[in-house]
Amino acid sequence: MDYVTLGRTGLRVSVAGLGCGGFSRLGLGRGKSETEAVALIHQALDLGVNLFDTAAAYGTEAVLGKALKGIPREEVVIATKAPFNVSNPNASAESAVDSLDSSLRQLATDYIDIYQLHGVAPAAYDHARESIAPALLKEQAKGKFRHLGITETAPHDPEHNMLQRAAADGLWDVAMVGFHMMHQNARDTVFPLTREHRVGTLLMFAVRNIFSRPGQLAATMRELAAGDEVPQWLAETEDPLGFLIHEGGAGSVIDAAYRFVRHEPGVDVVVVLFGTGDPDHLRTNLASLLAPPLPEADRARLASLFGHLVGVGLDAPHLARRARHWGP
Ligand SMILES: NC(=O)c1ccc[n+]([C@@H]2O[C@H](COP(=O)([O-])OP(=O)(O)OC[C@H]3O[C@@H](n4cnc5c(N)ncnc54)[C@H](OP(=O)(O)O)[C@@H]3O)[C@@H](O)[C@H]2O)c1
């Protein structure tokens, strides 16, 4: 495993962080058992992963706490989140503090390393900053968590408007941002700010459904080509990103997807979250995240074909049926 310092938090973290949410939720979202989820977390620990990202909303805090029981607390970095998303943008400061206390109980820990507001929409940012953050900072002073963070709601804010404010605010030590091969706009809109302000950056949506569900990529290409947003030839093949797979290049589209985000320039302060409930996927994804960058010619081709797209493939569990292009 490779380790980096997560921006100004100073935390030493693995470059790959196990996401305990998404569609997989450690496998629980796909019908696997808690025992299997615990085994998956232990497998990740054995392979050197030390950062785990969960949330009150995922229903995986307790299983993470159970899996980490017996592991010296300082050897792991636990990130979790207060429910504060598009469905409850006016959540009160008291409810965020209650949620923090509940997370501590669920995780069976004395402190959380990174406590984040979950999925803050641009219109809710002022409330998050003026009302919720001050209340949470009082709890931080009591030792309940170490660093305050914020995550964007990628499907509702594909242009990263919220994070463009938050990254420069000095309040949030960690930011979570959506970034992948066909949604690259954080390169220009967010990463310069997170680098300048040394905000620890967690990347989400590297693979999601668009690169993992059979047929979804080809269907998305057809839709984009119909709107003249990608060249027509990409709509005429069932394997539109096949050009990435060759000797010296990626071994699969998913391998390419993780290597692409991992080696984004400035990536030394970035951790890639990957979500899975499958032990084989966990192993191969870590191998991808530790592999060299994609060949420069492939990176350049991805930038020229897709660098202008905004918001492709940002499906959320409750929005899955609407998964499509959100950009102009
Ligand atoms: N706003 C927010 O705060 C927010 C939003 C989204 C995500 N997140 C965080 O980011 C984490 C990662 O996001 P994500 O879950 O979307 O992760 P992801 O790594 O982009 O995508 C994971 C999806 O791809 C599948 N997959 C992974 N590896 C695979 C492989 N090798 N072969 C085939 N399929 C594979 C997984 O299914 P399998 O289980 O079958 O592997 C899962 O459905 C989340 O768990 C969460 O912690 C936060």
Quick one: overall form? globular
Instruction: Specify the structural class.
Output: alpha/beta
Number of helices, where a helix is a run of at least 4 consecutive DSSP H or I residues = 11
Largest sheet: 8 strands, parallel, barrel
- Percent of residues in helices: 25-40%
Low-confidence runs of at least 5 consecutive residues: 319-328
What is the count of β-strands? 10
What small molecules are bound in this structure?
NADP nicotinamide-adenine-dinucleotide phosphate
Radius of gyration: 19 Å
Percentage beta strand: 15-25%
Give the overall pLDDT as a whole number.
93
N-to-C SSE string, H for helix and E for strand:
EEEHEHEHEHEHEHHEHHEHH
Gap from first CA to last CA: 39 Å
Q: Which strands sit side by side, in order, in the main sheet?
A: 3-4-5-6-7-8-9-10
What is this structure, in a nutshell?
The protein is α/β, with parallel strands linked by helices. It has helices at residues 34-46, 61-68, 93-107, 125-141, 161-166, 186-189, 191-196, 216-226, 253-262, 279-289, 296-306; strands spanning 3-5, 12-14, 16-19, 51-53, 77-83, 112-120, 145-152, 174-178, 200-204, 270-275.
Can you describe what's shown?
This protein has 328 residues and is α/β, with parallel strands linked by helices. Helices cover 34% and strands 16% of the residues. The chain has eleven helices and ten strands. The chain has helices at 34-46, 61-68, 93-107, 125-141, 161-166, 186-189, 191-196, 216-226, 253-262, 279-289, 296-306; strands spanning 3-5, 12-14, 16-19, 51-53, 77-83, 112-120, 145-152, 174-178, 200-204, 270-275. The strands form two sheets. Strands 3-4-5-6-7-8-9-10 form an eight-stranded parallel barrel, surrounded by four helices. Strand 4, helix 2 and strand 5 form a beta-alpha-beta unit. Helix 9 crosses helix 10. It is globular. The termini are far apart. The model is unreliable at 319-328 (pLDDT under 50). Bound molecules: NADP nicotinamide-adenine-dinucleotide phosphate. Residues 19-24, 30, 53, 118-119, 151, 153, 176, 204-208, 212, 254, 273-278, 281, 284-285 line the site of NADP nicotinamide-adenine-dinucleotide phosphate.
